[in-house]
Specification:
single chain; alpha/beta; 6-stranded mixed β-sheet; 10 helices; 33% helix
């Protein structure tokens, strides 16, 4: 655990893996059957924070409305911090918190994918007197009793992207995420269309058993069921890649060996997908149609190979690291007894499409491969984070 200065961006900590993603992750679950809107619709937390509404990134408000005046300690309790999506999300959290002069301490914990450590981290933060905990719950419902205990102790807890289950507005302030199932369906619809409605499809997820990847998979399945010409090769759930490029390369190499022909891939992390692309290159196989969330290297690789690989097209939706800002806003508002009506669930659209001249992939060669251009961080912030 480490105390950071409020006005510093997070330094790039040593990674457990080379790259993720939101990221993300990138990530874990949703609350209600794979959607991320939660069990409530239009309810409130503490009578002030609206719970369960749906909107877009443009609905996010300025943090100054929620800072209050009391001295506050905030924390980001990360279930897993070992990839670029998580580093960028941490940087956004710390940069956003630094805008409130009354936030005196900003703490960060990394459970390193260990559910028991995640439980211990939250308990420790509560014992230290933290007022607001924003948390990415990789451990799913196993964290819910700990979160409920923290809530009962007066701590304002806001899970984002990775869901602990339970009831937003009661067990914790709110759950903030994109509409995860729709994210998966949108990308699958695009991928299947570019495959011509036929062929072999694979869905790549993250850490085995995480609820986020399962929710994305559920959305992919909706699209597959509507397209009888598509064969989903991983019929028993998302393929685990740990959201890490090296592991993804190994896994995809195994899939190529097993199945021979793969025509399309939907992934829940663009940063990890770059490893899969290298697996196709090493195997000398035609690159498939590929969709994921945005990553600088994912876009740059398309420009590198597009002329040699006529079947290779890509599309992305936002890696939505920025949802961590909303989670912090809602926690601050709840602690300060202030109103917050920012959406809980965010609808995403395809932002890059190599077949659409108005949405061409964005490759910034002056930025690190791990940069996420939709994150909201400036070019200088991204460079500093990965230097």
């Amino acid at each position: 655990m480490r105390l950071t200065q409020p006005r510093r961006l997070a330094a790039a900590a040593a990674t457990a893996a080379a790259v993720l993603l939101l990221s993300t992750a990138c990530s874990t679950g949703s609350l209600s059957g794979g959607g991320s809107g939660g069990g409530s619709t239009g309810g409130t937390s503490d009578g002030k924070v609206t719970v369960g509404t749906v909107g877009t990134e443009s609905d996010i408000q300025d943090i100054s409305k929620f800072c209050g005046t009391k001295p506050i300690t905030v924390a980001l309790a990360d279930g897993f911090g070992g990839n670029s999506w998580r580093k960028i999300t941490r940087a956004i959290f710390e940069d956003e918190a630094a805008k409130c002069k009354n936030i005196k301490k900003i703490l960060y914990t990394d459970a390193q994918g260990d559910t028991q450590k995640a439980i211990s981290d939250i308990n420790s933060l509560v014992a230290q007197g933290v007022n607001v905990i924003v948390t990415f719950v990789d451990g799913g419902e196993a964290l819910l009793p700990t979160i409920k205990k923290a809530t009962a102790a007066g701590v304002k807890v806001v899970p984002f992207v990775g869901s602990p289950g339970g009831t937003p507005g009661t067990d914790y302030v709110d759950f903030v995420s994109e509409d995860i199932k729709t994210y998966g369906k949108n990308l699958a619809d695009w991928t299947i269309a570019k495959m011509g409605g036929k062929g072999n499809l694979v869905m790549l997820g993250g850490i085995a058993g995480n609820s986020y990847s399962q929710a994305v998979y559920d959305g992919v399945m909706e699209s597959v069921k509507a397209n009888p010409g598509i064969k989903l090769l991983n019929e028993d759930g998302p393929v685990a890649t740990d959201w890490e490029p090296g592991k993804t390369q190994q896994v995809v190499a195994g899939l190529i060996t097993k199945y021979g022909t793969i025509n399309g891939i939907v992934a829940d992390y663009g940063g990890g997908s770059v490893g899969g692309i290298r697996a196709f290159e090493a195997a000398g196989k035609p690159f498939p149609v590929w969709s994921a969330n945005d990553s600088n290297e994912f876009a740059c690789l398309w420009y590198q190979y597009k002329d040699k690989q006529p079947t290779y097209q890509i599309a992305t939706e936002s890696s939505r690291n920025w949802v961590v800002k909303v989670a912090l806003h809602k926690g601050l508002a709840a602690y300060n007894g202030l109103a917050n009506d920012e959406p809980s669930t965010y609808n995403l659209q395809i932002i890059e499409d190599s077949t659409d001249a108005s949405k061409m992939p964005k490759c910034e060669k002056d930025l690190p491969a791990d940069a996420i251009l939709s994150s909201g961080l400036t070019v200088d912030q991204l460079k500093k984070l990965f230097q």
